[in-house]
Amino acid sequence: MRFRLTPRETSFYDMFAASADNIVTGSKLLMELLGAETSARAEISERMRAAEHAGDDATHAIFHQLNSSFITPFDREDIYRLASSLDDIMDFMEEAVDLVVLYQIEELPKGVEQQIEVLARAAELTAEAMPNLRTMDNLTEYWIEVNRLENQADQIHRKLLAHLFNGKYDAIEVLKLKQIVDVLEEAADAFEHVANTVETIVVKES
């Protein structure tokens, strides 16, 4: 760990942790959507929208702190990248839930539950990792595991696409379902972006 002679602004750590905790909330709402009756999905979507707004607020707070701080705990560009990538995760999860409701999807294709399980696990790992930015300790396993989960998500996504194009669904339904599974895949990619940013931060600070 590089020795510093200057104090560092520490509130960033708390804000990153809060943003990651909010992502866990979003992942739980995704899980809830899986087992919900069609009539209950609109209410879940409203709660997801509220969580997404909370995520936006957390991101704006980080940007405001970044713009008003003379000293930061690590590189400003990495703070910006980390906050933006965390925000992207919530955006993609909220978009997926909103699409399910807007398209009035009666039944999600088999395999979507596996996508969401991967996202839920990545959310837990991310929330556990953020407090460790204070010390930069015990983070290697985090980014390795999130990268493994993203590879798993890629495989699930490819299988889902093959299923959607097997002739079981009509063309309009395929377009609707593909957009949903693609957005969930983008959420998995965003988790990997967060993990890669954390790895970059640790390497720079070591």
Largest sheet: none
How much of the sequence lies in strands comes to: under 5%
Helix/strand/pairing category: mainly alpha
User: What radius of gyration results from the CA coordinates?
Assistant: 18 Å
Q: Report the total helices.
A: 6
Distance between the termini: 4 Å
**Overall shape:** globular
Order of helices and strands: HHHHHH
Pfam family, one: PhoU_div
InterPro entries: PhoU-like_sf, Put_Phosphate_transp_reg, UPF0111_domain
Protein name: DUF47 family protein
Family: Belongs to the UPF0111 family.
Give an overview in words.
By secondary structure, the chain is mainly alpha-helical. It has 6 helices and no strands. Helix 1 (11-34) runs antiparallel to helix 4 and helix 2 packs antiparallel against helix 3. The longest helix has 35 residues, at 171-205. The N and C termini lie close together (4 Å).
Give the structure's gist in a few sentences.
The protein has 206 residues and is mostly helical. It has helices spanning 11-34, 41-68, 76-102, 112-129, 140-164, 171-205.
Descriptors:
206 residues; mainly alpha; 6 helices; 0% strand; disordered N terminus
Describe the SSE topology:
Elements lengths: L10 H24 L6 H28 L7 H27 L9 H18 L10 H25 L6 H35 L1
Helix pairs in contact: 1-2, 1-3, 1-4, 2-3, 3-6, 4-5, 4-6, 5-6
